[in-house]
């Protein structure tokens, strides 16, 4: 069991944390963490004795000797089928989920050390037992003080750049990718499938954003509106595109998602994919009719977003598919000025080779030459000059 916990943990555990994990794993009825916890004294010696050469302990933290040890123990490398050390991943995830969930349910919970990982462990279980499901449902009771205690830290770590949001069970299960919870909800017909949380985001959008490719079809089968609007990304397709989840993007398109829908932080799906640097998604969207020059959103257009990202492959792909190299918009007015102010010589060169107007006016600096000069990018200044930039142009 000790080795299974070491392998299953998402990060190296301290000896003290191992004492707690072992205690919770071996005393299913304990309701107080301090009582369940084993004695730390000489536990490190026992761990070394039980696990042999697979582990080492440094600064009270327990480590596997090497990543290949994990692969060997979990069957990712060839070994005898009767190998006694084989740790079946599904059993390991079930054990880790139980430990984390049990810890969060203890009556004397004072910290939230398991608030993130329990959701991952539970998601990876094929068929959780009834007791574990009961415990997980207890964590999903969103009106309790216990939920408020663990969820605040969970959200801060899981989504550090998103403000705290009020979720119901449907949204949280979709966010976590917990198919078993969603299945039980479907059987009990709990709540509207397209309901939104405080941020305006629905369950389908959360699942798409998080990349839960098994949950997305589950929600679609239950009747989720593939083009429902709202939330940071505006719709499910933009959420999946912005995060680079190609498989989900393909699934949404096959189920009628509007590839040119407007809305959300990035205005459209192509801009979202371009700003994320997701070449394969940009390519897929273009193949399915995305408007390469669609305007709107934070960067105004997909080319500007790709330039900001300094992604030459996506810039080239967009240009080959008809992107207007001189489209106006954004803080710096046009793509070449944006590239010049960022000091991206290779991007400026590519844009000029594809017809960018070296003297285009507009934006914060007025023109690309002013932008490059203000940033001290002498090589770009020289390049622009060689391409005919007007040194007397006013602006900025």
From TrEMBL:
PROSITE patterns: ANK_REP_REGION, ANK_REPEAT. The keyword Repeat applies. Gene3D superfamilies: Ankyrin repeat-containing domain. Keywords: ANK repeat, Repeat. InterPro entries: Ankyrin_rpt, Ankyrin_rpt-contain_sf, GPIID_WHD. Residues 2-76 form the GPI inositol-deacylase winged helix domain. PANTHER family: ANKYRIN REPEAT CONTAINING, ANKYRIN REPEAT DOMAIN-CONTAINING PROTEIN 16. This is Ankyrin repeat containing protein. It comes from Talaromyces stipitatus (strain ATCC 10500 / CBS 375.48 / QM 6759 / NRRL 1006) (Penicillium stipitatum). The lineage of its organism: Eukaryota, Fungi, Dikarya, Ascomycota, Pezizomycotina.
């Amino acid at each position: 069991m000790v080795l299974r916990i070491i392998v299953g943990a998402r990060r190296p555990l301290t000896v003290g944390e191992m004492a707690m994990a072992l205690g919770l794993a071996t005393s299913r009825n304990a309701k107080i963490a301090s009582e369940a916890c084993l004695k730390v004294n000489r536990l490190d010696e026992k761990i070394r004795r039980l696990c042999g050469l697979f582990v080492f302990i440094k600064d009270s933290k327990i480590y596997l000797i090497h990543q290949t040890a994990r692969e060997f123990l979990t069957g990712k490398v060839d070994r005898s089928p009767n190998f006694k050390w084989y740790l079946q991943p599904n059993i390991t995830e079930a054990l880790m989920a139980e430990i984390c969930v049990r810890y969060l349910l203890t009556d004397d919970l004072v910290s939230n050390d398991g608030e993130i990982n329990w959701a991952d462990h539970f998601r990876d279980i094929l068929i959780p037992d009834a007791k574990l499901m009961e415990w997980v449902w207890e964590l999903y009771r969103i009106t309790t003080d216990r939920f408020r205690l663990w969820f605040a830290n969970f959200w801060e770590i899981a989504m550090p750049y998103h403000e705290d949001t009020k979720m119901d069970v449907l949204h949280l299960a979709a966010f976590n990718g917990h198919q078993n919870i969603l299945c039980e909800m479907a059987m009990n017909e709990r709540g509207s499938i397209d309901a939104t949380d405080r941020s305006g985001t629905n369950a389908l959008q959360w699942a798409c954003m998080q990349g839960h490719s098994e949950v997305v079809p589950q929600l679609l089968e239950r009747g989720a509106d593939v083009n429902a609007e709202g939330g940071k990304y505006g719709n499910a397709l933009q959420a999946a595109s912005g995060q680079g989840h190609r498989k989900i993007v393909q699934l949404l398109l096959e189920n009628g998602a509007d590839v040119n829908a407007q809305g959300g932080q990035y205005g459209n799906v192509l801009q979202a994919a371009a700003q994320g640097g997701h070449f394969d998604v940009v390519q897929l969207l273009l193949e399915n009719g995305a408007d390469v020059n669609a305007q709107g959103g934070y960067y105004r257009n997909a080319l500007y977003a790709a330039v900001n990202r300094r992604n030459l492959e996506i810039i080239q792909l967009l240009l080959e598919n008809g992107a207007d190299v001189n489209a106006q918009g954004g803080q710096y007015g046009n793509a070449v000025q944006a590239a010049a102010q960022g000091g991206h010589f290779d991007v400026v060169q590519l844009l000029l080779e594809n017809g960018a107007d070296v003297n285009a006016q507009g934006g914060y600096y007025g023109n690309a030459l002013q932008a490059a000069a203000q940033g001290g990018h002498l090589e770009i200044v020289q390049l622009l000059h060689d391409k005919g930039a007007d040194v007397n142009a006013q602006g900025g």
